[in-house]
Specification:
The complex is a heterodimer of chains A (485) and B (30). By secondary structure, chain A is an alpha+beta fold. Chain A has helices at residues 30-33, 43-52, 64-74, 77-81, 86-91, 103-112, 156-166, 175-181, 190-197, 226-251, 267-276, 293-302, 323-331, 364-372, 389-392, 436-449, 470-480, and strands spanning 2-7, 14-19, 22-28, 57-60, 98-100, 119-125, 132-140, 143-151, 198-202, 205-208, 256-260, 281-283, 312-317, 336-339, 341-344, 353-357, 381-385, 393-394, 405-409, 424-430, 453-458. In chain A, a hairpin with a 2-residue loop joins β7 and β8 (143-151). In chain A, α6 crosses α12 and α13 packs parallel to α16. Chain A starts with a strand and ends in a 5-residue tail after the last helix. Chain B is rod-shaped and about 40 Å long. Classes of the chains: A alpha+beta (485), B mainly alpha (30). The A-B interface holds A 10-11, 73-76, 79, 127-128, 151-153, 158, 161-162, 165, 171-172, 209-218 and B 15-16, 18-30.
């Protein structure tokens, strides 16, 4: 049976195709439409999905009626009336039978059934689903049992997004920039945030004083240091997540922990949770956010472990890969691009749509930030040979193949290209089986330079999604002057 | 039964009040 999992009509639309419990294809819509965080499916994406198979069943990542009700009650009348679910799919000619699953159920299932665990405690935290904002589950075999749920408007994710807007960034898009800024400030307003916004936090109960759904531009206009505000809300977020993790560890006596929802994209908070030591093993799906719920909806339907052949599930560029040329360019201190094989599903470039560079070069961070049109303070991530990662990083987890955890760099001065202000880096560990092409490049680079890591960032320019096909790569070459292999 | 319904109604009204408790009329961020 061919199943289409769909997450669309809100933000970060995405589509996954599975045969029974095997994921065959998955891609965010933005890669095809070239519109960042695109909310809609598109014809090109559906054409590639159709090449895999026509759907016998479509699974949708939300319960449309519950969401409409919440929107209507909150005052989002236009949104509440927008075509959703079956009506939305019909616009794209998708008329197969449709099953709907709850938003947080898709996050929980998408995490648990892609994890290596037979049983696990599951925490889902995001801005809003239909109503739920925080949910705690116990996953065991085919059974997912909800243990607790907090509902709108009491939302940690929404509060974080409101602060993203408060410091002049785009909410629901640029939360990762706020997280990066947090390394530069002091948490001097954390108490103020507790006082002004948190009415009660007795794990797992969280109550906010206000509905922050319209942002908090009104909050303390006298506070001008955006870096301190960023550090403060990051601290509050981590404290609340730690409180939830403690409650889970006390309530569900399991050593395996799955974390999902948009807040699980906060790799600094993920590392704080990992370092608590409450759990033996932590699993975060490659895309724990809403785009990932296209796979989550399939998981919620099949209720068994999904066969997922890694994070490379998207459009395939079939070209001979000149890895010797790539290594030579890197050794010469050049910045290069890689666009080869199937595109990564998820927000991180993991080697098939990446910009690579030598992290030891003094001005490499400034050069790559200039190429990408990013703020100069923003850090880059390293990809490191997995077996050597502990020699160079104080890892909070044994492996981090999807760049979901940050680690202290043991010698940050040696690797200025990947060292953040606080001496940390968001590490991608790499084994041969993760990505043979990238492993070949990195191994040869290590043999010839003695450096087992490369700077790895997404192959795109500011404001655009990750490169999808070779036409996009050629355009990138012309715009940036960077050779793409 | 009636008491149960009444308490659910009170809870619903309270949650509605909480949902509409916003300090501004800016556009929704989601």
């Amino acid at each position: 049976m061919i199943i289409y999992g769909v997450s669309a009509n809100e933000h970060d639309a995405a589509l996954a195709v599975a045969r029974d419990n095997t994921i065959l294809f998955a891609s965010p819509a933005e890669r095809y439409s070239r519109l960042k965080n695109d909310r809609d499916l598109n014809v090109s994406l559906l054409r590639d999905a159709a090449a895999v198979g026509s759907p016998d069943l479509i699974v949708w990542y939300e319960k449309p009626f519950r969401k409409r009700l919440r929107k209507a009650l909150a005052g989002q009348y236009k949104d509440a009336l927008r075509a959703d679910g079956k009506r939305y799919l019909a616009k794209f000619g998708l008329t197969a039978p449709v099953r709907f699953f709850q938003h947080h159920e898709c996050h929980a299932a998408g995490g648990f059934y892609t994890s290596p665990f037979d049983e696990a405690a599951i925490l889902v935290v995001d801005a809003i689903g239909e109503w739920e904002t925080i949910s705690i589950w116990n996953g065991r075999g085919k059974k997912l049992t909800k243990i607790y749920a907090e509902v709108y408007p009491h939302s940690l994710g929404l509060l974080y997004s409101a602060f993203t807007q408060r410091i002049g960034l785009k909410p629901n898009q640029e939360e990762y920039i706020l997280m990066g800024m947090a390394a530069f400030g002091q948490p001097r307003y954390a108490d103020q945030i507790y006082q002004d916004f948190i009415e009660r936090f007795e794990p797992p109960h969280l109550a906010l004083r206000y509905n922050v759904h319209r942002g908090i531009r009104w909050w303390r206009p006298d506070l001008k240091n955006d870096f301190d505000i960023a550090t403060s809300i990051q601290k509050v977020t981590e404290d609340i997540l730690k409180g939830l993790a403690r409650w889970i560890a006390d309530t569900i006596p399991l050593k395996e922990f799955v974390f999902g929802g948009g807040v699980a994209l906060n790799c600094v908070a993920n590392s704080a949770l990992a370092r608590l030591g409450y759990f033996k093993d932590i699993w975060i799906a490659p895309d724990p956010g809403d785009a990932g719920s296209c796979i989550g909806a399939i998981a919620a339907h099949v209720r068994e472990r999904l066969e997922v052949p890694g994070p490379y599930l998207g459009y395939e560029i079939k070209r001979a890969f000149d890895w010797e040329g790539a290594v030579s360019a890197l050794l010469a201190g050049q910045v290069i691009g890689i666009a080869n094989g199937r595109a990564e599903f998820g927000p991180r470039a993991l080697g098939n749509r990446s910009i690579l560079a030598d992290p030891r070069v003094r001005d490499i961070k400034e050069r790559v930030n200039t190429i990408k049109g990013r703020e100069q303070f923003r850090p880059f991530a390293p990809v490191v040979l997995a077996e050597l990662a502990p020699d160079y990083f104080d890892m909070p987890v044994p492996t981090s193949p999807y760049m979901q955890f940050v680690a202290k760099i043991r010698d940050p001065a040696r690797f200025p290209g990947i060292s953040h202000h606080d001496g940390t880096a968001r590490v991608q560990t790499l084994r041969f089986e993760d990505n043979p092409n990238l492993h070949a490049v990195l191994t040869r680079f290590y043999q010839r330079s003695g450096c087992p890591m490369l700077l790895n960032t997404s192959l795109n320019v500011k404001g655009e999604p990750l490169i999808n096909d070779w036409t996009d790569a050629v355009r990138f070459e012309k715009l940036s002057g960077i050779k793409v292999y | 039964m009636a008491l149960n319904l009444l308490s659910r109604l009170v809870r619903w009204v309270k949650s509605m009040i909480r949902i509409r408790r916003m300090k501004n009329r800016d556009p929704f961020i989601y």
